[in-house]
Amino acid sequence: MRKRVTSSLGRVHLARPREATAGASLPAASLAAHILLGRSSCRSVATATGSAEAAGSGNHGKMNLSGAPFPRDPARKDYMQRYRQDLARLSARLLEEAGAAAGARWVDSHCHLESILCRTWGGGGTAAVRESEQLLTLQDLVSLWPAGMEFCICNAVFRKPYKLPLRQGRAEAARSGGAASCLSEWGWLRANLNHFHEGSRLASRLKFTVGIHPHEAVHPQGWDEEAALFVRELAAHPLCVGIGECGMDLLRHKPRLADRQLDAFRAQLRLAVELGKPVVVHSRSAARPDGAAPAYATASGADPVEAACMSALTEELPRSHAVHMHCYSGSLEHAQRLCDHFPRLRLGFTGALTFGGKRGAQLAALVTSLPLERLLLETDGPYMCPAPFRGQTAHPGHVHLVAEQIADIKGETLSKVLAATRESTRAVYGI
Ligand SMILES: [Zn+2]
């Protein structure tokens, strides 16, 4: 997982937004400016092409990938070929099912574009990701998505910059002629806001949410006045569709830090109510993934994270508020209580649903029991890439595989699953 560092670059989010223009070159004057911008924006500036137009042209159903990058390296070429074959298979499935693939529309309701593009997630420790996958610009990435995948919702929730893995850092330093970059999701969003502006070729396929992740909320500088100001400012952007992901996650943190997470969570819930924005909730049970009992528990025996999450949501939000329970992996009872209380609450499922084993079976049981109308599709890319691409960098072009798994679990047509989850995106986000 990501290694974050504290440094003066923690102020990265305060940098002025930069309006990148195609063909402009990176100012050589300031290494700091390079760091603040993040190297993905530098790559975007350098290689902006019209390749995204093919994907965004409304040519739905044909899955035109003519503008997609096609590398010469054999491993990368093979990866791209398999990706293209998968989209062709999807197109055929939709045609066979509905008689017209052109009608199908879907959305990736949760991903992290900065981590996808910069490979800062490190491939989950899998060198093959960095060696076999091509680094892409945002334009290139969007051009890879099938046209039916209307847009993604990108979450910007990490304020701190983090170190690139040593080897990647050296390569980047050699490439850029400077020190290796430190990036943050907030810094990336700032640097790439030009792509989210009306009139940008990519704007129709990009939305974002902003907040502080519970992993970062455990730090004293995770959620403070500056953070609240940043979130308020970005929330005013026309393509900001929600606050978060925020919530609780005690799998990797000491129980005494739970209060910090809870304070940041509640503060963001109140902000969402004030701003009239949906909330994206990240809630991970304190139960250990191997099924062993949690290290600590409530007096009643209820899962402490589920209990705290339920209290925070019901106490801070009106019942009519829109809620996205992202990458849901809690208990069925908790999901049902949440659904009963909040009519505009939906539960997101990721590629983990395709993983099989105990985890896959648990998620499949949830999907079986929950109404289709309550589900959202998400990749949480770059994490949890669905089968048959497990282990690779997940991105919105993979999210149909989650829908196909839901269709298979529920015995429904893929078209029905895509339509229902698309409607759920409207119910939560109004888009
Ligand atoms: Zn996420």
Automatic annotation (TrEMBL):
Coiled coil: none annotated. InterPro entries: DNase_TatD-rel_CS, Metal_Hydrolase, TatD-like. One of its GO terms (molecular function) is hydrolase activity, acting on ester bonds. CDD domains: TatD_DNAse. The keyword Hydrolase applies. The keyword Hydrolase applies. Keywords: Hydrolase. PROSITE patterns: TATD_3. Residues 52-73 are annotated as: Disordered. SUPFAM superfamilies: Metallo-dependent hydrolases. PANTHER family: DEOXYRIBONUCLEASE TATDN2-RELATED. This is Uncharacterized protein. It comes from Polarella glacialis.
